[in-house]
Every structure is written in C-alpha cells, then in structure tokens.
C-alpha cells in the first residue's frame, strides 16, 4: 500500500539511518521533510532526493532547541498542508569509561538525544491535536536503550530515557489517537559506528581499526551487520496504518543481538 499525500518529518536525515528512513518513506509515496544540523550534507541529500523524483523539502535545525523543533513542524505544515508522522531520529554518541564521563558529554548527549526527542514529540503532538487527526511519533532508541554497554555509559543512559519517554508519551497521547513507538537498531554501518569504532580502538591498543565494530557485529545471530535499509523497513511499518494498534513499544531491529 502506498502512502500518497501523507507527510513525514525525519530529523537528522542528511545521512545515516535518517536518510535511509526518509528515502524508504518517499519511495512509498510520502512527502518528506528532511532535516539536519549539518547544512552542507543536507543540501546534498535534498538534491539527490529531487533527482530521484521524490517530493521533499528541507529544514536546517538543531533538535535540542525547542524553538527549532516548533519551527520545523510549522514549516512542514506551511509546505505540505499537514503532518502525519514525526520521526525523532537525530542522535549523538560518546565513547569512554564511566570514571571519565564529564559535564560536557552529559550535557551534549542529553541535550540532543533526550531533550531533542521530548521537544520533537511535543511539537508534533501539538500539531496533531490542532489538526484533530491521528498521528504517529517514532523515536530512535537503540539496543543500548534495553541493555547498557561498557564505554557507552552516557549514550546508554540517554537511550534508556528515550524508551521511558516513548512509553509516557504513548500513554498520555493515546486518547488523542497519537501513537508513539521507537525503533532499536543494533550495529549499523553509519558514520556513528565509524566514530564509535575509532574511539574504542583508541582506548584499547590491542584492537586494530574496524575490530571494535567487527567484535560487536560478530555476535549478531543473523550473521551480518545491520544496513540502514533494515532499520528503514521497520520504520516504514511503524509509519504505516498497519501499525495502528501498536503504541509505547521500543522494537528491536538488530538481527538477533538483544532479546526482550
Ligand atoms: N548506527 C547505529 O548502529 C545505531 C544508531 N542508533 C540511533 O539511530 C539514530 C541515527 O544514527 P546514525 O544514522 O547511525 O547516526 P549518524 O551520526 O550517522 O547520523 C546522525 C545525523 O543526525 C544529525 N544530527 C546530530 N545532531 C543533531 C542535532 N542536534 N540536530 C539535528 N541533527 C543532528 C547529524 O548531522 C547526522 O546527519 C541515532 O539516534 C542513533 O543513536 C541506534 C542504534 C544503533
Ligand atoms: C550505536 C548504538 O546504539 C549501539 C550500541 O550500537
């Protein structure tokens, strides 16, 4: 089933998983609002979407700023007329031992991953309530939102918080016909995992470049690392009417790594 005339926002969609999600939705007929803090990469991605014939617009913003998130929703509605799906995808990571976690790291990761998800969810939900339509909010969680990982302490804490806010928003918004769910990828090859690998290798001299990634990926039951398309396929389902009876869930899409 195609999704003609439905409108989705994907935050952090200049690259990585967000780009793949926006592309999958556009291929299915969605009008997509691309969004990122990285203006140069976003401009490149928008051009590629236009070349593919997708109906796409873009907005440069920072998810950790409430005003940016509100303006993102307003601009989307001005451009496409309404909003159906809002995907809080943007996220950042930090790698290091617990004893070295500092204020800057805590502030940065909580600002983007947690404050960003809360502000995005609020802005989208307010629009759905104004429209008096059903709506879908879909958040980027992680295997690290179900299981905390050594060297990823702050990151794991933020993703546990995302899972908690997903449940709370789902409970409070259900009466307004708004569902809130999350996708929990495992080990996907994006710039984020390139950076994680680099930092883990720096911290452990016995590892060569690529080996931290390989170590995590070697535990995946389905025998291969995750591709952005694997994540996009789940998000496409969560954005569709087929998921209408699902809310408050943080669904693992990790090839068999964490079992809940
Ligand atoms: N790559 C992986 O294996 C996994 C990723 N995730 C989550 O999936 C989401 C996407 O991850 P990736 O694509 O791998 O990351 P990535 O680092 O490759 O891409 C993230 C995008 O978000 C943008 N961004 C960062 N901060 C922003 C801000 N303040 N405002 C707006 N945009 C911002 C970046 O510019 C970038 O384009 C993140 O929330 C991440 O935590 C979860 C589990 C595994
Ligand atoms: C990046 C991420 O969420 C993990 C733990 O792989």
UniProtKB/TrEMBL annotation:
A biological process term (GO) from this entry: acetoin catabolic process
Active site residues according to the UniProt entry: 155
InterPro entries: 23BDH, NAD(P)-bd_dom_sf, Sc_DH/Rdtase_CS, SDR, SDR_fam
Domain of life of the source: Bacteria
One Pfam family of this chain: adh_short
Molecular function GO labels: diacetyl reductase ((S)-acetoin forming) (NAD+) activity
EC number: 1.1.1.304
Keywords of the record: NAD, Oxidoreductase
Binding site for NAD(+): 36, 62-63, 89, 155, 159, 185-190
Reactions this protein catalyses: (S)-acetoin + NAD(+) = diacetyl + NADH + H(+)
PANTHER family according to UniProt: 3-OXOACYL-(ACYL-CARRIER-PROTEIN) REDUCTASE, 3-OXOACYL-[ACYL-CARRIER-PROTEIN] REDUCTASE FABG
Family: Belongs to the short-chain dehydrogenases/reductases (SDR) family.
Function (record text): Catalyzes the irreversible reduction of 2,3-butanediol to (S)-acetoin in the presence of NADH.
NCBIfam families to which the protein is assigned, alphabetical: 23BDH, PRK07231.1
Protein name as catalogued: diacetyl reductase [(S)-acetoin forming]
């Amino acid at each position: 089933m195609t999704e003609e005339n439905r409108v989705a926002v994907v935050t952090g969609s200049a690259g990585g998983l967000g780009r793949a999600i926006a592309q999958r939705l556009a291929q299915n007929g969605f009008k997509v609002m691309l969004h990122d803090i990285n203006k140069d990469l976003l401009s490149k991605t928008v051009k590629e979407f236009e070349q593919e014939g997708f109906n796409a617009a873009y907005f440069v913003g920072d998810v950790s700023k409430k005003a940016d998130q509100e303006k993102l929703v307003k601009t989307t509605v001005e451009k496409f007329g309404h909003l159906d799906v809002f995907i809080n995808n943007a996220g950042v990571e930090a790698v290091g031992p617990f004893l070295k976690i500092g204020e800057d790291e805590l502030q940065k990761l909580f600002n983007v991953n947690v404050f960003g998800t809360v502000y995005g969810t609020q802005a989208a939900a307010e629009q759905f309530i104004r429209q008096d339509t059903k709506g879908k909010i879909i958040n980027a969680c992680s295997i690290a939102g179900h299981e905390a990982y050594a060297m990823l302490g702050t990151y794991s804490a933020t993703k546990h918080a995302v899972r908690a806010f997903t449940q709370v928003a789902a409970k409070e918004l259900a009466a307004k016909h708004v569902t809130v769910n999350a996708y929990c990828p495992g080990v996907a090859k994006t710039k984020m995992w390139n950076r994680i690998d680099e930092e883990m290798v720096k911290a452990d001299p016995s590892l060569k470049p690529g080996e931290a990634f390989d170590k995590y990926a070697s535990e995946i039951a389905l025998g291969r690392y995750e591709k952005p398309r694997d994540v996009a396929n789940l998000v496409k389902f969560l954005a569709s009417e087929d998921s209408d009876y699902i809310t408050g869930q943080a669904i693992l899409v990790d090839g068999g790594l964490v079992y809940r």
